[in-house]
Structure prediction request, 400 residues.
Amino acid sequence: MNKLAFKKCLLIVTGSIAAYKTPDIVRRMRDQGAEVRVVLTSAATEFVTPLALQAVSGNEVRQDLFDHQAEAGMGHIELARWADAIVIAPASADYIAKLSKGSADDLSTAICRASEAPMLIAPAMNQQMWENSFTKEALDVLSEKGFCVCGPDSGSQACGEVGLGRLVEAEILIESIASLFNSGSLAKLRVMVTAGPTREYIDPVRYLTNQSSGKMGYALARAACEAGANVILISGPTNLEPPQGVGVEYISSAKEMASSVSEGIGEIDIFIGCAAVSDYRPEAVSDQKIKKSDSTLSLKLIPNKDILSGVAGLTNAPFTVGFAAETEELERFARDKMTKKGVDMIAANLVDKDGLGFNSDDNEVTVFWENESYVLEKQPKEQLARKLVTLISRVYQKNP
Ligand code: CTP
Prediction:
């Protein structure tokens, strides 16, 4: 099981002898599915080379706050936005002290200041330095600010002493990074997500469909699962790997999706309708391939059932979240759709804006509920899904 699948992890390596272990840590993080970028402090370069970390991470290693190569010359902001998680390993005594005082005078500390991502510190230092009250006080400050602390381990140290202060083993570090994403905000809840396009067959070899890739729905299913929910994903045809830990039911047509949804919906607390369901299907499906002729061919289409409004209209309906793909007047059309379909929340996006939407890796949505709204700026769908799940859980907790 890939514990860090689809996670963008920024590793900050500081000046501790344990920095020599970081190429192996990076390799193992990548084996677990993470995309890894590395920032080195100047003290860290005494113990490990940028080239080694570049080779194992497959990405350029950054060291300078003022980087003329970085997008708009602001490498710290670019990396702070990019990271799903920031891992400081090994974190030296000096670095911990500096971070706890709010320094932002080099690339790594500026990134920590500029990022909203969860952060993990893995201390590594001589055992006396670890026992020193300055270290404890600095870590207390960082814990209060939301940093998670992993380790240190006990054992023989590079300086010849024995005690607490060794960098934790790579497996433990990876477990701790993975647990940064397990918010528990949907613990014990059952969530159903629909995703992808549907196919409406005309004959045995032809069908009507749309450009939906399923990426947003799969990312939502993954994020809901990480948030502790028991998740069922009802998916139209996509090229995507099934998300780990999620029960997936594959369907093809809107009718099949509707019947899978209605079979499982009785057990569900939160329904997220992310699929691009075909609004129509051919009235008649030919048993045989339709042969070419010189005359025109008309297809008569009949409407499909609206799955989302069907769910929202149930007695004891779950909390329902819909999507609205619009090309204009986002708020008006999205709120109209929310009222018409009777859903609790709607995530709306402009499909033709900067190529965002159906088939892209990034998305930007405005979420509407009751009289409120919240904009989730343009970002990768995986990141956006985690934020949307957090928002859904907050609104749900108020109206379970
Ligand atoms: N939806 C659904 N069943 C359908 C059509 C849509 O459950 N037969 C759901 C989608 O999963 C999405 C929401 O309805 O959550 C809105 O889909 P969208 O295509 O934006 O809206 P439509 O209802 O199809 O309206 P229109 O195409 O006129 O904008």
Notes: Residues 194, 254, 273, 275, 277, 279, 304, 306-308, 322-325, 337 surround cytidine-5'-triphosphate (CB under 6 Å). The chain has 13 helices and 19 strands. The chain has a mean pLDDT of 94.
